[in-house]
Design brief:
There is one protein chain. The chain is mainly α. 80% of the residues lie in helices and 0% in strands. The chain has 14 helices and no strands.
Length: 419
């Protein structure tokens, strides 16, 4: 761990600054949209646009890197991010924001692919698992810190848009000054969706549902807070609790997942997540209970990303694990694009509690489907399951494939030790 930290601290610092910039602009737009008079349904398209851009960027970034190299791709896309953030307050139109969010999502995806490929290159086979864990912690710290920065200025002004723009610009320095040339990122050829679904129906369906839940947290939490009349301070605390929960519960759930049937754990975690959302619906007048609900939702849903990946790997041959990452990411991305739109529509029709109702519905569906899958085929012996690797839903395909490579390496190490 210390060896990896000494060689990659500048990269990690740069990535934390990027996460802070991204976290600020997402929550800030939810607040500013309410100030500008945008409807909840309009804001749902604004928030969904980020994930549409992110999905497209994850597909195109590797080819861009192959053509012009890591440094040029990183610098160009990060510059676009900084510029678009500054433009938001100057164009108070929801459809202009939709375009801006598509660009932002595309650029952040490419920036993550580039920076995370350097980060993965800095890790060795022995340190990859620790590096994934450390990187996930850095991401969550960045997102939590972003919510605190929202309290430094008036969201109706210009300053809070300048801050994330500056943070993204500053992030260039530690990353670009610390890296060495690396080979272009080669994306693994994905297996077909049919093969993936046949191999792990729960992994595929779960990733689709989870994409909607995560995008609702990341995109619509501030919209919900603004609609119910929370202050800026309350919204920032509310948004932060999703990521605080993720930090608290990620590792205990990971430890448990290596010791029980993962399908039962997925069902339990999804059930607790839906229970948290139901608490918020029936205790919507209590800010404390809303925070408890956010902690439970974030603490359960974020680790589900890694749990579903580990479960899918349990039913794959080692040579297919990396290939499966593309399909899992695609399904998660489709869910992420549709999640905010569905949430916005439900909130427009049924009121602000529609935010939690959508999360509860997705997670109840996942819990029952997990229980159903346990009746369809026997579980894998605990000693034959693969290792759990902590991965954040905000990561690019690079880190996701690195986690898959770590699973393969762990499987091979176990095979070697047994022989």
């Amino acid at each position: 761990m210390f060896q990896f930290l000494s060689s990659a601290w500048a990269l990690l610092l740069g990535m934390m600054l990027l996460m802070m910039g991204n976290g600020i602009q997402s929550t800030l737009l939810g607040i500013r949209g309410q100030i500008e008079g945008f409807s909840t349904f309009e804001m749902s398209f604004v928030m969904s646009a980020y994930f549409a851009g992110f999905l497209g960027g994850s597909k195109m970034a590797p080819e861009m890197i192959r053509r012009v190299g890591h440094v040029r791709v990183f610098a160009a896309l990060a510059s676009f991010v900084s510029a678009v953030i500054i433009l938001y307050p100057t164009i108070a139109n929801p459809w202009a924001w939709v375009v801006g969010r598509v660009i932002i999502g595309f650029c952040f995806s490419g920036v993550y692919v580039t920076a995370e490929s350097w980060l993965n290159n800095a890790a060795t086979n022995e340190t990859r698992g620790q590096s994934l864990s450390l990187y996930m912690i850095v991401q969550m710290i960045g997102l939590i810190a972003a919510q605190a920065i929202l309290l430094t200025a008036d969201p109706s002004g210009f300053v809070l848009f300048v801050i994330p723009s500056v943070l993204v610009s500053i992030s260039f320095a530690p990353i670009l000054l610390s890296i060495s040339p690396t080979p272009a990122f080669e994306a693994a050829k994905p297996m077909s969706l049919r093969q993936l679904i046949n191999s792990s129906p729960l992994g595929a369906i779960g990733m689709l549902l989870l994409g909607g839940v995560f995008s609702a947290q990341f995109g619509m939490s501030a919209v919900y807070g603004a609609e119910v009349g929370m202050s800026v301070k309350q919204i920032s605390i509310f948004a932060a609790m999703f990521y605080v929960g993720a930090l608290i519960f990620q590792y205990p759930l990971g430890w448990i997942s290596d010791r029980v049937d993962r399908r039962s754990l997925i069902a339990m975690v999804a059930g607790i997540c839906s229970f948290g959302a139901i608490i918020a619906i029936f205790q919507s007048d209590s800010f404390i209970m809303i925070l408890v609900a956010a902690t439970l939702i974030g603490g359960m849903s974020n680790p589900l990303y890694s749990l579903l990946t580990a479960h899918t790997n349990d039913f794959l041959n080692p040579e297919d694990m990396v290939a499966a990452s593309g399909g899992l990411l695609f399904l998660n991305g489709i869910g992420a694009v549709t999640g905010p739109i569905l949430t916005g529509w439900i909130m427009s029709v049924f009121g602000s509690n529609g935010f939690f109702a959508v999360i509860a519905f997705f997670m109840i569906t996942l819990a029952f489907y997990s229980a159903y899958r346990m009746t369809r085929r026997p579980g894998i012996a605990i000693e034959d399951t693969g290792s759990f690797a902590a991965v954040s839903p905000t990561s690019s395909p690079v880190i996701f494939e690195a986690a898959q490579e770590y699973a393969v390496e762990s499987y091979q190490d176990e095979e070697t030790s047994q022989n």
